[in-house]
Design goal:
The protein is built from 18 helices and 2 strands. It is globular.
Length: about 400
């Protein structure tokens, strides 16, 4: 009965695109490890009172992940993604785990109170941020973390003996579903306690966008065969990336403005900042294997990464099919080192860099009307950081 139940869960999540296939990799917010990025984040954390801003979130994650850690030991020796995800939460807490919430707090402080709120509720602000905005930042992180855990579910239909015992892989999937659901349930409870209908609508729609985006990027639709047949343009990439990676931050920034009763114009600018920052970050992330790796080094990237999409659009579908076929091994697997060299030789990488800089600049433009402050400067530095490689 349990076996049948797990197969049903796996099949359901597979249809939604949450199931991990093939090249399994998860990231938190940025894989950029430069000293510049670290300094930008460190300075920004001090402005909003981090880490005290996230004490309740840290306690919740600590309790839940401690519970997960007790059971996840069963996955040691397997290739289940939940093992690396849990390890990342425990050991990578300084590497931008709560980056989205940090941006929401900075946006809240940069905008300040609205004219109608200034006299009435200014006394409720701590370090220039309302308690409700701090709660929103935590809710944003809970939602992101829940989806991160859910996306670590393995497609058991593609399970092999080298992945680990089938029983352990099924257990890992069960833990990923339950842990993600627990975090998402807490986020929804906190969202309701904000007592703001518009904010509830915004964040709920962001959750819907994430599901739609993750479904669209289902590896079953985007892996080698589908990509070789075309139909996935740069415009499609941007649309899908916004849904799966940008909607939550964009709408959370807008919601932070709504909680302070800012007008529609301010809400729109905050939304644009979150949108363009997210797209710029994803481009930066996709570009890392192409700007950091050298010939002869092991390389790993997805066939739906931005430089690959640009490359395919530049060379045309027929030539792309030939290049993809030539990069395949005798066992019909893709030799990513060979494909990397082909993509590097064309203009797809430079086109992706240009688009990354474009989104970084658009994020900068969006907050120029906010009053000059440390918080605005921190937001500007973050936008600049995603354009550095």
């Amino acid at each position: 009965m349990a076996m049948r139940s797990m197969k049903l869960v796996n099949a359901t999540w597979s249809k939604l695109g949450f199931v991990s296939r093939g090249r399994r990799s998860l990231s938190l917010f940025s894989n950029t490890s430069s000293s510049y990025w670290s300094k930008v984040v460190s300075d920004a954390e001090k402005i909003v009172g981090y880490p005290t801003s996230f004490m309740s979130l840290r306690c919740l994650l600590s309790d839940e992940l401690s519970n997960v850690a007790m059971h996840v030991r069963k996955l040691v020796g397997t290739k289940h993604p939940l093992l690396n995800t849990a390890r990342g939460f425990v050991y990578d807490s300084r590497n931008n785990l709560q980056m989205r919430g940090l941006v929401v707090l900075l946006m809240s402080k940069a905008a300040g109170p609205s004219h109608m709120e200034a006299q009435l509720l200014a006394q409720d602000m701590v370090s220039g941020i309302y308690p409700s905005q701090r709660n929103l930042a935590e809710i944003t992180e809970l939602i992101h973390t829940a989806f991160l855990v859910h996306r670590g579910i393995v497609n058991l239909n593609e399970w092999t003996n080298s992945d680990g015992p089938l029983k352990d892989m099924e257990f890992g999937n069960k833990m990923a579903v339950l842990s993600g659901d627990f975090l998402l349930a807490n986020a929804c409870t906190g969202l309701a306690q904000l007592n703001n209908t518009k904010v509830v609508e915004l964040i709920s729609s962001a959750i819907g966008d994430m599901v739609q985006g993750i479904y669209s990027e289902n590896p079953a639709n985007l892996e080698e065969n589908s990509l070789a047949d075309g139909g996935f343009s740069v415009a499609s990439w941007e649309e899908q990336t916004f849904l799966s990676h940008g909607a939550l931050l964009a709408k959370s920034c807008q919601a932070a403005m709504e909680l302070a009763r800012h007008d529609k114009e301010s809400q729109g600018l905050a939304y644009k900042y979150g949108k363009h920052l997210s797209l710029g970050h994803k481009l930066n992330s996709d570009l890392q294997p192409f700007v950091k790796s050298s010939v002869g080094e092991p390389v790993s990237f997805g066939l739906n990464a931005a430089p690959v999409v640009f490359h395919r659009q530049i060379v045309g579908q027929e030539k792309w099919r030939q290049q993809l076929q030539q990069a395949k091994t005798l066992r019909n697997h893709v030799d990513y080192s060979k494909l990397w060299a082909v993509i590097k030789s064309e203009k797809g990488v430079s086109a992706a860099v240009d688009l990354c800089c474009y989104h970084g600049n658009k994020a900068l433009e969006a907050i120029q009307t906010f009053p000059a402050s440390e918080a605005r400067s921190a937001l500007e530095n973050i936008a600049c950081a995603v354009t550095k490689f």
